[in-house]
């Protein structure tokens, strides 16, 4: 990494004020890839041009957006089949459809050798994005993957009708994720690790606190343990409302929260005030309304407001409240990152 970029990231990660607030994001925008990497067919090279071109300091994954002209394209999403039309993608087939499928589901254990082979590929991505952008590797911890194999409603019914089988599935998937965490802790590819499992929506969590404390937090803690022991900071991602579960996440070993969706009811200023010394705040800029539907001036004002609420004393990686979604105009995308660089310099003047 470029020393200045690395120093900027590490200062903010340790709640100090660097030269400016680091920028973190994931880009799902065909116009942006056309703007920075037109004609580039290699996904890694295309992403390097996009992230470096936007001066994004950290990214949590590589994504090659689909051409909106690929109307009706179907693809295998791993645990499901999906269909894409224009700017929208949705699941069309789940591998688990019935309670009998739940009871019959099995999965082979994951070996450390398999993960080490994957880690070598991640190192190549990391080195390609350097020196300007830090690649933060990561994985889900198994809970989202479990309900993602059957859909949310069938998962909730199975929680009632076959709870032991659901717990078996979560435990199996989490064990695979823990192998990832162990290997990446030993590999020390990055000072951070990203765990993404959606458990919330607007206004509340998707599951009761009792369910989360029985079937989610213990498994999240198990996955965090080797990372925390290795001195690697865990950035945890869930869309939606998290105000009621922040203390639980801290108890699991989480040291950063993403994406801090403001329209879900999260009070970023209050989170900063209460947890600012213990949590790195990652994201925060509304990507569902403001970025895709606001004017460039709205975007600039939104950046300034977010910096006022959470930018002081370090501890902020500014970015979208999940990712840059396909419907976001290119002008707003360029304006957003330019404003982050302009107004994010310390001492903040917002």
Q: What do these coordinates show?
A:
This protein has 350 residues and is an alpha/beta fold. Helix 8 (163-187) packs parallel to helix 10 and helix 14 (296-310) packs parallel to helix 15 (330-343). Helices cover 47% and strands 15% of the residues. It has 15 helices and 14 strands. The chain has one domain (3-66, 119-343): TIM Barrel (Alpha-Beta Barrel). The strands form four sheets. It has a six-stranded parallel β-sheet with strand order 7-8-11-12-13-14, with helices on both faces. A three-stranded parallel β-sheet has the order 1-2-6. The mean pLDDT is 95.
Quick synopsis:
With 350 residues, the chain is an alpha/beta fold. Helix content is 47%, strand content 15%.
* Major beta sheet, strand line-up: 7-8-11-12-13-14
Strand content: 5-15%
Residue windows where pLDDT falls under 50 for at least 5 positions? none
Elements, N to C (H/E):
HEHHEEEEHHEEHHHEEEHHEHEHEHHEH
Beta strands, count: 14
Largest sheet: 6 strands, parallel
Q: Radius of gyration, Cα only, in angstroms?
A: 20 Å
Count of helical regions? 15
What would the principal axes of the Cα set say about the shape? globular
CATH topology: TIM Barrel
